[in-house]
Amino acid sequence: MSSAVLRISLVILILFPTFLYAQQEDVIVLGMSAAFKGPTGGLGIELYRGAMAYFSYINEKGGINGRKIVIKAYDDGYNPIPTIKNTVKLIEEDKVFALFNYVGTPTVTRILPILKSNSDRNIYLFFPFTGAMPHRTPPYDEFVFNLRASYEQETGGLVENFIKIGRKRIGIFYQADAYGRSGWNGVRKTLAKYGGKIVAEATYKRGAKYSDSFTKQVEILRNAGVDAIISVGAYAACAGFIRDARNMKWDVPIANVSFVGSEFMINLLLEEERKTGVSYTKNLINSQVVPSYEDTGLPAVRLYRELMDRYNPLPPPDLMEKDYKILKYSFVSFEGFLNAKLMVEILKKLGKEPKREEIKKAAESIKNLDVGIDEKISFSPKKHQALDKVYYTTVKDGKFVPIRDWSDWKK
Question: Using CB atoms within 10 A as the burial measure, which of 158, 209, 220, 355 is most buried?
């Protein structure tokens, strides 16, 4: 090696860490691994868009004590192995301040041991898009903060409302993995409280497409004589199941949980209606974990709609399919927006020199915070879930609206 090259190499080795720090000291980097492509890609995209609408607003006003908020995002295709690799990269190479906005139960559950093994480095996951229980219970609950209610709360509420209107023969259609089983367990536990049990169950493999056939699953549940179905799956598969049930002249009420992505599911079904003339959106119920983005009486909803219109944020081009059609508004992006709003309040508590070792204490100090919805938010060392309320919606005029009276489905 020549003396000139050696000198240059030494200069790079000495200066590069300083350069890297200089690049990072005016930003707060949050790491996100989510499905941005494939059958569930819309969830990652819209969650990202909602969060960036609020972060863009904060950044435009100067950020957090002069620091801009950045999301470093990677696609995991809703598969555990890429999620593990992305998480290691975010921690080891990108050196993110915190993990944020992850999507999915089978993915999040697999990175929980990584959080625990990095406890000495104060790596926490904020506001994942999943209602599963593993990160809400020991030994992993201390490393994750949740905005949303759990799947047990969602499915439990659906079961109770069905029972009240005389629909006690409940079947379940679910994704055959940790996500589906989490919902399955919530249905089972609530039915047991009333002396009942799941009448029949049918599953599908994660990654199923809307174009796949779900007639066998429909036949299993119909032949068992169920009078209500709870679906715990992704939008492509759940829409395909609904399509096949209605094509087979079965109009039993079908309820989905929040993860399904209501707008993605209904858009597939409305497109099918235009092709066939069959009504696919009748007797559909979706539980939600945030208020309706149509409820403009809420300050957060008004700000969300304003900022989505103003910034219309998009993920980096390499994270999006070329033919992806963005949603103007959605429950998913509104949840992402609220995630960002809450994250900003936590970051503000860290002062001018934010340190990772102080973020847990800052989050747990949030008490009765008004983020502009109909619920106050609080955390504590023993409480890492902000919201417990579940909202119920049905389809009217091509969109999901709040349910006013469950007796419409009385048996």
Answer: 158
**Residue 160 lies in domain:** 151-288+392-409
Same domain, 216 and 361: no
Q: Are residues 192 and 95 in the same domain?
A: no
Look at residues 162, 160, 153, 151 and name the one whose alpha carbon lies nearest to residue 253.
Answer: 162
CA–CA separation, 315 and 336 (whole Å): 13
Which pairing describes strands 391-396 and 284-288: parallel, antiparallel, or unpaired? antiparallel
Give me the DSSP letters along 187-241.
Answer: HHHHHHHTT----EEEEE-TT--TTS--HHHHHHHHHTT-SEEEEES-HHHHHHH
pLDDT confidence of residue 1: 43
* Residue 313 resides in a domain: yes
Q: Does one domain contain both 250 and 397?
A: yes
Could you tell me how far CA 67 lies from the centroid of its own chain?
A: 26
Report the alpha-carbon angle 218-222-228, nearest 5: 95
Residues 6+ apart with CB under 8 A from 14: none
Q: Judge if 165 and 136 occupy the same domain.
A: no
Q: 200-204 and 144-145 as β-strands: parallel, antiparallel, unpaired?
A: unpaired
Quote the CA–CA distance of 335 and 341 in Å, as a whole number. 10
> Is residue 385 included in any domain, yes or no?
no
CATH number at residue 85: 3.40.50.2300
Say yes or no to pLDDT of 19 above 60.
no
State both tokens at 196. 């009942």
Kindly state the average pLDDT of the residues 337-364. 97
d(CA 262, CA 267): 9
Q: Do residues 131 and 388 touch, judged by C-beta distance below 8 A? A: no
Residue among 164, 57, 145 nearest 101 (CA): 145
**Nearest Cα to 151, choosing from 340, 288, 293?**
288
CB of 140 within 8 A of CB of 112?
Answer: yes
Whether 275 and 319 share a structural domain? no
**What single letter denotes the amino acid at residue 122?**
N
> N- to C-terminal Cα distance for the chain?
84
CB 160 within 8 A of CB 168: no
Q: Residue 126 domain-assigned?
A: yes
Buried b (16+ CB within 10 A) or exposed e, 20-59: eeeebeebbbbbbbbbbbbbbbbbbbbbbbbbbbbbbbbb
**Does the pLDDT value for residue 23 go beyond 80?**
no
Contact 136, 146 (CB under 8 A): yes
Check if the beta carbon of residue 131 is closer than 8 Å to that of residue 257.
yes
